[in-house]
Write a structure and sequence with these properties.
Number of strands: 10
Low-confidence stretches: 205-225
Strand order of the largest sheet: 1-3-7-5-4-8
Mean pLDDT: 88
Number of helices: 13
Radius of gyration: 20 Å
Helix content: 40-55%
Strand content: 15-25%
Order of helices and strands: HHHHHHEEEEEEEEHHHEEHHHH
Shape: flat
Length: 301
């Protein structure tokens, strides 16, 4: 029985075991999409608490393969899972649906949630890359901590990009991790090398460590970027390791392994298992140095 079939098994313990197996691997893009869709279907119909928890915990392993439709369906799953909360926040997309109004140093706007479930404290980006912070959400005149997909509410936004919001129609939770994953799958090795070079920044790894509440990025570091998201970091590590083990271009390979060093705190067993398949004797000198550092016993990760 395949994993997708096991995720729909009548026995909840079988469904739970299948979800835990999903979480222990790095998957190829096609498998990510198929398993992501199967996990979403399973979570939407699940009645067993243990199986549901395992299904939601497994989602970051296939997050890059989730579609907007999958994310919408996940928003309907009622659970206090911090993993689900962070995933839906990372996917957040807001459409500004009425003229904005300045409010002191911040900006008031009426928005509709197009995707995910943005939460208060989340950092969002304007199309030109400026950061805003979702300070407050109001639904029907009452404060709320999240805005679900399809809902319209009034929000207060602050941060460097807040004053220019009248120019834009849309705000996104930081899309760079997904963009990096797509770049690492590109046929052009120069695109793969550039995607790898931007991976640490995409994970927010240059920011301060830690996050409050359910783990949604709420702080700022240096020039105003959100703090690191461990699950985004692990998603990037999985994509980088998968790219490295199939890489034919020496410059792209060096960039991928160097990026993994920069993301070492997020490098988990599934990605490490892939890296062990690389033969150091076949690598260029600088790539071999990076790999040795990544696989060194006692490395923190």
């Amino acid at each position: 029985m395949g994993l997708t079939e096991q995720l729909g098994h009548p026995d909840p313990r079988q469904r739970e075991a299948a979800a835990r197996r999903v979480a222990l691997r790095v998957w190829e893009p096609e498998a990510e999409e198929a398993l992501g869709a199967a996990l979403v279907r399973a979570a939407g119909a699940e009645t067993d608490p243990g199986a549901l928890a395992a299904q939601l915990d497994a989602l970051p392993a296939v997050e890059a393969g989730l579609t907007d439709g999958d994310l919408h369906r996940l928003g309907l799953v009622r659970s206090d899972s911090p993993v689900l909360a962070r995933l839906l926040a990372r996917a957040g997309r807001l459409q500004i649906s009425a003229p904005v109004r300045p409010s002191g140093a911040a900006t008031l706007a009426v928005v509709r949630c197009l995707r995910g479930a943005p939460r208060t404290g989340l950092w969002l980006r304007t199309p030109d890359g400026a950061w805003t912070v979702l300070e407050r959400i109001e639904l029907y005149g009452r404060a709320a901590d999240r805005l679900d997909s399809g809902c319209t509410g009034r929000v207060l936004l602050s941060g460097p990009g807040a004053r220019g919001l009248g120019e834009w129609e849309r705000l996104d939770a930081d899309p760079r991790p997904r963009e990096c994953v797509r770049g690492l799958r590109a046929p052009d090795p120069r695109v793969r090398a550039l995607a790898a070079a931007g991976a640490a920044d995409a994970a927010g790894a240059a920011g301060a460590a830690g996050a409050a509440g359910a783990g949604v990025p709420v702080g700022a570091a240096g020039a105003g970027a959100p703090v690191a998201d461990p699950e985004a970091g692990r998603m990037l590590c999985a994509a980088l390791a998968r790219a490295a083990v199939t890489e034919s271009d020496p410059a792209a390979l060096e960039s991928e392994l160097a990026a993994l060093l920069g993301l070492a705190p997020f490098l988990g067993p599934p990605a490490l298992a892939l890296l062990h398949a690389l033969d150091p004797a076949t690598l260029p000198a600088r790539a071999r140095t990076c790999l040795d550092a990544l696989l060194r016993p006692g490395r923190t990760g």
